[in-house]
Amino acid sequence: MTTARIIEQQRKTTQSGKAQAGRWTLEFERSEKMNPDPLTGWAGSGDTKTQVRLTFETCEEAIRYCEKNGFDYHLVKAPRHTLKLQAYADNFR
Fold it and tell me: What PANTHER family has UniProt attached to this entry (predicted)?
């Protein structure tokens, strides 16, 4: 059975705003192993599902899509970082 990975997008480090944060991306996991091409040596496979990426506004929409189409899925939530606020003078204590 096809397995999907539902990933929560987080903002890029170069972004100051939160325009694309909080959206969810559905990617399919590889079902075939990668084999080296004898001519070029590049790794490849006949599995083209890994090239598909679907974007959803909410996690529930992505889960509903997987259940409707009969895909197994697992959620990957974005890590939450907490900032340690300190004064510049604290570096010299």
Answer: NADH DEHYDROGENASE [UBIQUINONE] IRON-SULFUR PROTEIN 4, MITOCHONDRIAL (PTHR12219:SF8), NADH-UBIQUINONE OXIDOREDUCTASE (PTHR12219)
Which class does domain 3-92 fall in?
Answer: alpha beta
- β-strand partners of 3: 72
- Domain spans, the chain: 3-92
Q: How far apart are CA 48 and CA 27, in angstroms?
A: 11
Provide the phi-psi class of 70: left if phi over 0, else alpha when psi is between -120 and 50, else beta. left
DSSP secondary structure of 34-85: -EE-TTT--EE-S--GGG-EEEESSHHHHHHHHHHHT-EEEEEPPPPP----
- pTM of the predicted protein model: 0.70
